[in-house]
Design a protein that fits this description.
Number of domains: 1
CATH topology: Rossmann fold
Number of strands: 8
Number of helices: 6
Largest sheet: 8 strands, mixed
Length: 225
Amino acid sequence: MVQDSFGGKNLVAYLPHGYSKEKEYPIVYFKMGTNNTAMQFWSYLPYTSHFEYVIDNMIERGEIYPCVIVSIDGNSAGKSDWLPKNAYALICYVEGKVRTYAKGDASKIIESAPFRAVGGWSLGAIEVRNILVNDYGNDFWKFFGVYDIQSGYNSKKMSIISDIPFVGCAAGSNDDPNCVRFTKDCEKYFKGTKNVAQIVRGYSHAIQFQVAYFYNAIQNFVRTK
C-alpha cells in the first residue's frame, strides 16, 4: 500500500504482490463518499479491515488479474465536481508513478483506456456519473461503476451511453424500495447495452458495505475468465 496526495486529496494505492515496473497493470480508481477518506476504503474499523487481503486472495485464486487500485478522498457535502475536473491530471500524476498500460506516457492515456476503470461510492458515485453524462474525458476509461442510492436514476442515464460498460448498484436493507425500482429500470434500460446490474438486498447504503459492491464489480473488469 502506497500513500500519496494530489489536488488536495489523499490517495492510497494498492500494488499487487510481485509488482514490477517491467510489467503493465490494469488500474482502478475509486472515489469515496462525503467526507470519507481514501484509507477508509481499505479499513473502516470496526466493520472492515485490510480489504487489500481480499484483493490479494482474489488474485491468488486466479479470479482477477493483478491490478493497481487507487482510492481517493471524498469531498465535503454537495461537492461533486472534483473528479470530473481533475480526471486527466489525476491519471497523468498516478500513472506517471505506477506502471500501467499507459507506460507513464500521457499521450497513451486514450490508447490504454481499455485497461482503466473508475468507480465511486455515494457522492463519489455522483462524480463518476457526472463524468459520463457530461463527457468529462469519457475516452480515458472503459469501465465505470456507480454505487449509490440513486441507482434507479443512474441506470436510465447510463443506458444512453450504451457502448461503455457500466455497473450500477442499488443499496439494500435501508433502501429496499429503490432496489425494486432499480430492477425494473435495468430491465427496461439496459437491454442491448454492455451494462450490468447489481442488486444486493440485505446490504445498506453505508460505507462498510462498499467493499462488497466493489468485490463483485471488479470481477467484471479484470476477471481472468
